[in-house]
Amino acid sequence: MNRQLAWQTYEKLPAPQRRDVEWQRFDLRALNLTGIAKRPQSVRVTLTGAPGVTLRPLDEDPHLGQSVPADEPHKFAALNAALWQHGALLHVPAGHKTDRPVAITYEVTGENVTAFPRTLVVVEPGAEATLVQRFTGQATGLHAAVTEVFVKEGGRLHYISQQNFENGILDFTLKRAHVARDAEIDWVVGMFGGALTRYDVECVMDGEGGTSFMYGIGAADHRQQFGQFTRQHHRTGHTTSDLLFKNVLRDAARTNYAGLIKVEKNANGTNAYQSNRNLVLSDKVKCDTRPILEIESNQLRCTHGATVGRPDAEQLYYLQTRGLSKEQATNVLIEAFLEPVLARIRVPAVYEEFQQLVRQKTIR
Amino acid sequence: MNPLPQELLRGTYKEGFHDDIKPIHQVPKGASHEVIDYMCDVKDEPDWMREFRHRSLDLFRKQQLPDWLPGLRDIDYDAITYYASPVEKSARKWEDVPEEIRRTYDKLGIAKEEQKLLGGLGAQIDSEMAYHNIQETLAKKGVVFLSCDDGMKQYPEIFRAHFAQAIPPEDNKFAALNSAFWSGGSFVYIPKGVKCDVPLSVYFRINAEQFGQFERTLIVVDDDAFCHYVEGCSAPIYTTHSLHAAVVEIFVKDRARCRYTTIQNWSTDVYNLVTKRSFLYKNAVMEWVDGNLGSKRTVKYPSCYMMGEGAHGEVLSLASADKGMWQDAGAKMVFFAPNCTGRINSKSLSGHGGRSSYRGLVQVRDGAKNCRVQVNCDALILDEKSRSDTYPTMEVDGDLATVEHEASVSNVSEEQLFYLMSRGIKKEDAVSMIVNGFIEPIVKELPMEFAVEINRLINLQMEGSVG
Q1: Which of A231-245, B16-30, B91-105 has the highest mean pLDDT?
Q2: Min Cα–Cα distance to chain A from B360, Å
Q3: Which of A59, A131, B243, B376 is the most exposed place for a label (fewest CB within 10 A)?
């Protein structure tokens, strides 16, 4: 990777400002980028492999930077490209199928530290794998991660990603997956920690018959600020993408979802769906949602929906008539609200882990 | 973008003719303080308005276009004529309208409409109202329907209390431009409790070339009153661009109801950049029925600002983008008061390389408890050259609000086509039936004559779009 070019890109791109549409209702006062390259980096990488797959610390690889290049117009991705020291490479050879999950854990600790983990996932033709990626630790400072995923012809990847930092850190993460012909990615993203957490989650549909399922959970409380920027880019026709991001907001939390479905000219036979649902549990939260469609093809079906609302009064009443207190009834409804996303996790232990995190964050 | 070949349009856009009408007043091209002084002198306006116009022009020069609004950078503001008036004052009788202007309106069939279904009619050509009249029965009830200029002079108190209160010149660049050069438009006042059950209608016509039309409409519907206002517009086809930047402010007072229907059918060389906003007070109801069928580029988001408890706002939007058009239409709902509701229903068509965008904003502010709003947008793309976008924004502060948005984009379904064709219906007719069914929920809200006109226009736009 050309670190020089990446650093130049980083310097050229403007810092987030409240007058940009995507940052307009965020509190950015905690963001301090001065002397960023000189601050200590603190990342501990733990890798748990599976038989037949390669899982090793990331160094050079022909795929590196092929999806998110050094001059990616994303300030924090460019910063990552310039400064990353820690990373992991998962390579699943052609035709190799395993349901043993592979795990990559990044732990960030310390005061006012930086962390730039970079992950590269290559699933070769006809291969199948499950990846669990965790970001955790007690730290303050700045975390900017990049994950590049390539799922090749007929490959399948079940990708579960979970971020559970203690609340002091600012997290800027870009994840992009390229889905080739007849390939499939089945994706669950969990956002739980961070003072300010911005996730860019993107899929690029490169080959006919490709499918992408993108599911996300955000559980925000206290003064946490979450930004979720999703992108379903249909470059080729006869591709399917399905997206559901669900957020639960408590206290004075703040979420900003912006999703784009982009269907290129001649990407006929595209089937795309995008949905953002927000459950609001306090009158001090701020919740924005901007689901966007840009469509230049006509043989397609594309729908989206977004809602912001409180727990349904009738459902609450019903549960209370069955003897539950109002709090218990609300808790049941929160779990029910998030279950469609949790249910996408096919690894039982990880499902339970998510369930625990959800309970810790949302249930009172 | 290159201007469209004339021969392509001549067949479909029947309003594309132009008449030679000599302006009585015309100013040099360009937006300048001299033009404002000239206009104020001609119109004999009070000093506060002169100051307001000058201040607005300064604001216009300072304001930037927002980043999310592309495609408007190539407007040459200095090539446009900001004021041209072919008439001295608006007439009450058609016989008093100068003959060549009457001819224009006869061709458009405007005068005939008046006898049939309207309670009042206004007709604006370029900068000024050529005709403004209202049925005597309505006038007796105290309904005021005048050109905006006459409204300022004859009802200064009502005018000043509301003018620029909903849309100040600071609001956006085009509102500032309108505030500097406004001329014509309507002033409507419906007194307390009066139900004006026949529509008041205005027709806007641009006749001059490279012209800027800046009509200004102010509607005040007092407590418990009702009003239905209908506007239509068209222009000749030139190879140069004209600019239409209107401002419409509506105040719907306690328990009152207002419906505002627009059939916009500008020729494809008109930039249509309009700010429309209504303030709704306690239990008021506002309905915008917004049909956009013409223009090169339309930027228009009729808005409802819920200022009083229990208000209800509704926007029905229909956009059809044909060759060379970009319909950037949508709606805004902003909630400041509790227990308010809103509904946005948008349908758009794009064909022959046209582009339709829905752009919407739903904002629930602190203190607006228990509000509900529902947004539905459906888009139909008729061929592979065309494009459709949906840009909704929802911002919710606090809880107790329910905001829902649903949208879909699709083509004319093969299954529906096959079904109709298997019943012996020709392909073109089948497509036409499907499209008419798609827009039906909006079209049925229009007065009969307009519904017929919309169907005619849409069918024309669709000709040859399926192959």
Answers
A1: A231-245
A2: 10
A3: A59
Question: CB count, 10 Å around CB of A1?
Answer: 17
Which pLDDT belongs to residue B24? 77
pLDDT band at B456 (very low <50, low <70, confident <90, very high): confident
| Ranges of chain A with pLDDT below 70 | none
Tens-place pLDDT, residues B107-125: 777 766 665 667 778 888 8
Q: Is A27 helix (H, G, I), strand (E, B) or coil?
A: coil
**Domain boundary assignment for chain B:** 6-300
Residue of chain A whose alpha carbon sits nearest to that of B350: A298
Note every long-range contact of A9-12, with CB atoms under 8 Å and residues 24 or more positions apart, other chains counting: A9/A70, A9/A71, A9/A72, A9/A73, A9/A78, A9/A81, A9/A82, A10/A75, A10/A78, A10/A79, A10/A82
B400, closest residue in chain A (CA to CA): A310
pLDDT at B4: 36
Contact yes or no for A107/A41 (Cβ under 8 A): no
Three-state secondary-structure class, residue A43:
coil
Q: Which of A278, A293, A299 faces B411 most closely, judged by CB atoms?
A: A299
